[in-house]
Amino acid sequence: MRLYFAIIFIALNSALGLGQEAEFHFLEKTTVKLGDFKEGETAKHKFYFVNSGDAPLLIYAADVSCSCTKTKFTSTPIAPGDTSFFEVTFDTNGKYYWQDREILISSNAKKKEKLRIKLYVIPKEEEGH
């Protein structure tokens, strides 16, 4: 009889655990306009977020479409209620005028998140005009 109750207890515990999910809650907009930069400068921005879910958040990757855009983020699990950030840097060398970059985040959260930075790069030959 004890074995029966132990099996039911374990089964219920497992079933309840399956409903737990990690979830991003960004503390600002996920699309930001960074302003104007001279060609050769590096643009940086941090996107802060909270794990508003009830399971640890694991970030696997932050994919970008251009090698001019880099991201930094923690590789350790983010506990429910804890805050962390994505740091995005954009190298303006060889880039001109309006730039629009998207970062696609892969994690164990229910849905994929997208971050986006927008900026204007003033070409070197136009500086001072």
From TrEMBL:
Gene3D superfamilies: Immunoglobulins. InterPro entries: Cupredoxin (IPR008972), DUF1573 (IPR011467), Ig-like_fold (IPR013783). This is DUF1573 domain-containing protein. It comes from Lishizhenia tianjinensis. The lineage of its organism: Bacteria, Pseudomonadati, Bacteroidota, Flavobacteriia, Flavobacteriales.
